[in-house]
Structure prediction request, 356 residues.
Amino acid sequence: MNRRDATGRAVAIATATLLLAATAGCSSARDAGVAAVVKRFYDAVSEGRGAAACALLAPRTVAELAAAGDDCAESIVKLRRPGAVRAVQIWGSEAQVRLTGDTVFLHSFPQGWRVRAAGCRARGEEPYLCVVGG
Amino acid sequence: MRRFVRDQALSLFFLTTFGLALAAQSIAGNADYNARQIADGGAPVSWPAYVTSSSFAVDVAENWQSEYLQFLLFILVTAWLVQRGSHESKPPGREGPESERDQRMGPYAGPDSPGAVRTGGLRPFLYSNSLGLVMGVIFVLSWLAQSVAGTADYNAGQLARLQDPVSWSDYVVSADFWNRTLQNWQSEFLAVLSMVVLSIYLRQRGSPESKAVGGPHDETET
Prediction:
């Protein structure tokens, strides 16, 4: 690679990084809000406040639990509380919060972030396998 | 005012149609996006939220980059390659950048020629290639914008499907990026091929993009 190519590539990468930062920059400002919803969710779960935890689920996730014959408030408190938040990623209306021992997926609704799936484990390139949602 | 409109009518027509088509795309795109959101269990978004989203940006940018690439290639390749009989081609034998005399540069510049062609050094070289350079820069920037917005849009889809997001460097070698890119490129190249070949045999009376209706098929002079 000659010097001009290297300079051009560096400029392209810098530009892309800036644009990506601009695109994802808004999400970094929202990271705390997403992490706070996950904390409220697991606080409710670990304190046995099932109804409060279910209020933070996405409507589709609540409907899936009901379709499976599960009572949301009773089943949700069986989730195991994970460790600390390790990473938050927000892309558009979707978010992923990685915690020690768990991954949570959320969607942005007009009333705020709601949990799409929780208690999720990675399965390579396949979608995560989740205890709730998915 | 009337004279201004008449003199700039071609630009004004395409500026207006561009604006109308972009606005219509944003409305149709918003409806399509919201239908997918609802199907995935998500919430629909407002029009302002949609037109500032990565989903709208990637759909716009992927078409822009391919259009600018099409014209960039058309501008550059037609300098070096000819098609006998095509209205879009120079006559055979005139391939290449041509002489300063043919291009009215340097000592052959006229009193009304742009100032850049009467000077020496880098300026006339840059001006000689300014059309291709500007189209090329817009192409590269549009393609870069497609890759950035595409990364964001792809990752939103990944998260909605409970899959991990990817980095920009992974996205630009992904099937999604190249599928979006190549499906636009192939259609642009086909459109150019059609113009080059069909203009040999077909006519559009009054259009500068066509030979005179009575022009012979083997006439290449534009």
